[in-house]
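Lecture notes, part 5. Sequence design as translation. It can be helpful to think of inverse folding as translation between two languages: the language of shapes and the language of residues. The source text, in structure tokens, appears below.
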């Protein structure tokens, strides 16, 4: 097997504007993973697996450089209505306005919410 064939076999390929295929860069791979996980979450009948939520959030929030507060809106059967990044902050903090969270959840007729945020510095808090 030639070196070129081996490298193509182990690469994720994307089509560029000219229609030619080329190996994807790291950002394109992450974007593709986000689309796949978002689709899995949307297609999920009932959100009954913490692992699916954890994987989705790890891809959505893991590479961000600033703190983000997000909400996953759920219906009465715990199906995902929508994922919304509501607030963005600095590298170490973000401001959250509970009134806005309530307004958004009422507008979507959410029966339940998952409130999440990331720690881009890698330091977790309680």
């Amino acid at each position: 097997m030639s070196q070129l064939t081996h490298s193509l076999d182990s690469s994720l390929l994307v089509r560029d504007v000219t229609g030619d295929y080329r190996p994807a860069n790291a950002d394109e791979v992450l974007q593709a993973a986000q689309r796949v996980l978002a689709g899995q979450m949307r297609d999920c009948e009932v959100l009954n697996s913490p692992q699916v939520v954890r994987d989705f959030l790890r891809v959505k929030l893991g590479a961000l450089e600033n703190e983000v507060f997000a909400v996953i809106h759920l219906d009465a059967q715990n199906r995902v209505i929508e994922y919304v990044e509501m607030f963005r902050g600095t590298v170490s903090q973000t401001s959250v306005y509970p009134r806005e969270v309530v307004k958004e959840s009422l507008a979507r007729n959410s029966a339940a919410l998952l409130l999440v945020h990331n720690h881009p510095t890698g330091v977790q808090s309680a």
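The translated text above is only one of many valid answers, since several sequences can fold into similar shapes. Strands lie at 13-15, 21-23, 68-74, 80-88, 112-117.
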